[in-house]
Automatic annotation (TrEMBL):
Keywords: Signal. The lineage of its organism: Bacteria, Pseudomonadati, Pseudomonadota, Alphaproteobacteria, Sphingomonadales. The keyword Transport does not apply. It comes from Sphingobium soli. This is ThuA domain-containing protein. Transmembrane segments: none annotated. Residues 27-247 form the ThuA-like domain. Residues 1-22 form the signal peptide. It comes from the Bacteria.
């Protein structure tokens, strides 16, 4: 009887597996490795993103191992660096990721993943599109929507009260980005920072989420997402989903979006 049951289950799997695979719209690799300042978010973000994957019918592969970049990256529609910067990769893994992007792969950079030591991996800095310097302490401020027609902004109000680290950035490689979200510096203190450090305002042009094309792929960057509890917030998660959707598929932008 047991042998018969196993046989029936095996036969059923042959029919169920292809159907389940057909429902997956794309495959996303999420690289999330614990570090000194970002680790409590991991179980919360994983649970929320796995629920998101089920809701939106895409396949999510979660990893904390840089060795995942030694594997075939071409199976992924996009790679997300979630609070885990490219400096975690060794030389061989960096080369494989560069090759993936040059072959038309796509990348999404979230919060801490945008920070990498200046000059250590210039290619990755250009992929991010901005070099992150210091950042003020976590404060409540007003996030402004600069591109209403980009999917990562669809669910956001024009002026969104949000608490985060509003990164200060520079553009040493003169990379052209398309700003999706900015921040109103009059709504918080851009100089409020720890003793011994200095933070200066960026002015009206202060991007905190953006997109651009790099090599032959799409890149979406959001510098928001410092606290673990944010990965339970509906509005923030819709922001992430809009970024995932565009990064993985290239779809969703209204015709009047910036080129």
């Amino acid at each position: 009887m047991r042998m018969m049951m196993r046989l029936l289950l095996a036969i059923a799997a042959l029919f169920v597996a292809p159907a389940a695979m057909a429902e997956s719209q794309f495959k996303l690799l999420v690289f999330a490795k614990a570090n000194t300042y970002h680790y409590e978010y991991i179980p919360i973000a994983r649970d929320s993103l796995e629920q998101m994957a089920r809701l939106h019918s895409f396949e999510l592969v979660w990893t904390r191992h840089p060795e995942s970049f030694d594997e075939d990256l071409s199976q992924y529609a996009a790679v997300m660096f979630l609070n885990s910067p490219g400096e975690e990769l060794n030389a061989g893994q960096r080369a494989k990721f560069e090759a993936y992007m040059r072959a038309g792969g796509n990348a999404m950079i979230v919060h801490r993943a945008a920070i990498t030591p200046p000059g250590e991996w210039p290619w990755y800095e250009k992929l991010v599109g901005r070099r992150v310097g210091v950042h003020p302490m976590v404060q409540t401020g007003v996030v402004t929507v600069e591109d209403r027609n980009f999917p990562a902004a669809f669910a956001l109000p024009d002026r969104w009260v949000w608490s985060d680290e509003f990164y200060v950035t520079a553009n040493p490689f003169d990379v052209r980005i398309n700003t999706v979200l900015g921040v109103d510096e009059s709504s918080y203190d851009p100089t409020k920072i720890w003793p011994g450090q200095v933070s200066r305002p960026m002015g009206k042009d202060h991007p905190i989420a953006w997109y651009h094309m790099y090599e032959k792929g799409r890149v979406f960057v959001t510098t928001l997402g410092h606290e673990g509890a944010m990965y339970r917030d509906y509005t923030y998660l819709t922001h992430l989903m809009g970024g995932i959707y565009w990064t993985a598929t290239g779809r969703g932008q209204a015709a009047t979006s910036k080129p």
